[in-house]
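Recap for those who missed Tuesday's class. We walked through two folding examples back to back. For each one, the amino acid string is listed first and its predicted structure tokens come directly after. Nothing is annotated here on purpose, so try labeling regions yourself before you check the end of the notes.
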Amino acid sequence: MKFNFSLLLLYGLLLMLARSASHAKPLREGDSQLIARLQRYKRQFSLNFGATHEDGYGTDVNAEAIASLWKSQSGNTKLDGSASYTQHFGGLSGDGRDYRLKLKVVFTR
């Protein structure tokens, strides 16, 4: 199995994003004016990592990040996004890569 540097870079980038988004600065008593000026949004995202191996076929390694990017004030429209990377190692078909970016717009009534 060959080592792929781009896969390591993707994992590192996803790890940095997860660490920077998970440390929020707490609000203090005197921050009431700041709270009034800024509306804080709760950002949630999901990071998924996986690998499967089958003898004679090879190994598939994948990483995916999913996040809600935007939501209208009424809540009727939202924009979700995801990015994924998959790499196949070995087997009869050889090595292969797949990169995907997705945006999904949801309208509700």
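Example two. Treat it independently of the first, because the proteins are unrelated.
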Amino acid sequence: MAAIPAAGLSSVRNLKKELQKICGVPRFRQKILHEGTALEEDVCLDVSLESVLLVLVTFCAASEAEIKELVYSPCDGSVEEVAKILQRSMDPNATTDDGKTALMQASQDGYTDIAQLLLEARADMDMADHDGVTPLLAVSREGGEDMVRWLLAARADLNKADSNDCTPLVGALQEGRVNIARLLVQAGAGTGPGPQGNELLYSECCEGNLEVVGLLLEARVDPNAATEDGATALVVASGEGHQEIVQMLLTSKADANRFDANGFTALFLAAQSTHSEVVRLLVQAGADPDTEIMGTTALASATVDDSVEVVRCLLHAKVALDQVNEDGQTPLNTACSFGHLEVVRLLVQAVVDRIGLVGLDRVDKCGGYTALHCASIHNFLPVARVLVEAGASKDIEDETGYIPFDYAKDEDMAQLLAAERITVAFYRQSLQGEGMIHVLRASRKCDNAAAASIKSLSSKHAVLAEETQQLATESEALKAEVQQMQAELQAGTSRLQRVEEATRLARGVAEQKRAEAEAALAQAAQRDEALKQELRLQQKVKLQDECRSCEQKKHQLLEEQAHEAAGIAKAQEAAWALERSESALQDAQMRVEKLRSDRDLTLQRSRAAEQQAKEALEARGQRAAELRRSCEALEVEEQSLKQALRDQALHFSECTPPLYAEVEALHEELAAASRSRSASVSSAVRAPVLSTRAAGASLSHRLQSPAV
């Protein structure tokens, strides 16, 4: 209790909370006893209270009625009632027959204070019922925004799914809880590994719900994943014409050329549905405009539907102009057959610019008709006029040998399509009365037809001149582009050289930095070693301080024992005085008993404190003894080293004088021998010299011995 702050000792509840921080056991499993009595949580603790008993209680087996009481107690919103039930050592994770817990009920009812109380009791916020539904999933479906915020702050599992692979985010979106879904996405929730997220993305793209689609994409739902039926989000959004959703999907890396289960692409459905802005977005994202689906293309579909803007977008994307449909018709032939004048103008201009006049005279595979044939057969005079003005040939025959003029149904069409020659089929048809223009009418207008033919030839000549001029202009432009590319190549080469130089400099800087780092590491190692030495010294000083503090506490305990002994002596003197007083004998006896009980309590406390102090002293004594033993071992080792040095010095001092005396004697013998035997100097000197050398060798050997 001495380690607990004073604020934590104000009440039993605060004390339990402080103990929960220390031992990790919830306060509902703690019982505080004082003198054998359990203290209630509202009881204020006395400052003079020195010790209490902490009892940790295990969970008790609860009946079905008790479990229901705990689970459904949050329905009333009473925190005190739930706390009383938890005080009975009830498991906060106890479940009913259907797997519901008290935290689930509190979450569904929106009682955050009760949920906080259950969480304090260590209730599992991610525990699911028999259907796998967690509190967060249930609240996300029901729309409890405040409770969702509380569960997210309490770090509930964001992506735990039920038995149907439904996560909290999926549940919120299925029920239309957009605000809750936004909270979950901001917290990092996802739709899980199941198909739920893909199904949601598909349905929301189909309905055009931009906000929900944005949330799903932010939740990392794959925009290219297909539903169980094989449908994709981009295809359905493009077919429905939801431009902003298509833009959002393309920004999220949706594949613009992906097929759905029916074999359609997003561009084909957008063109078929005449959504020009969606077509423009898809083309800019790299959608292939020439993909053939069921024998037709996006351009052919837009041509049939007379979608001028879609055709313009596709032409801007350089769509193939000579690709035929399942009937063998080019887009231009199809447009002429349906009489879509604006589409025909766009296609004619594109064909002339990209293919040339020969592109206007392409024949289809069913009948060999040209675009002009189609316009004449269906009697679309404005379309035929556009083709003729662009330079379409009037003389090409179909598989039956008819030219466009042969199919003319009125005088204006016949005058427009009158060629330089009149076919045999035309005469035969006129003579038989089958044609709408008989021979007489044709002969009357022969001069007009000739004039028209001359005018047509002049226009063709002008077109050829314009094409020649255009080719010259394009040649100049190509030359300029080649020069520009050469300049860019030179600039790129210079940039590459600069990059190589910068790379070389960067490598030099990197090597320098590496050397500096190695030097810094060496300095750090030196500092580390110095810190270790300093730490050892600090530990030694700390142990010495602890020993001194233990000695001081021992002296204090001895003084306290002396004071207690003096108190006992005074109590005995008082008892004797009371015994001598006969008038207050009974009162004195009662006081003596009280003093004795106080003395015993004091003795017990002092003995307990003395025992604790002794244990502390013993522990510190053991540590001090270990230090003393280590110091004594070091001293013994030092003494042994000193003694060995003394022995070696003494041995050296004892061996040195005899050696010097022996050398002096040898010198004297040598001198005497030289004086007595001067005749045989060489022979007389050789023996002392040899003996001197032997003695010197012996002396050298003895001096080099380890003992010396």
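Answers for example two:
Residues 420-447, 681-685 have pLDDT under 50 and may be disordered.
Strands lie at 30-34, 37-38, 53-56.
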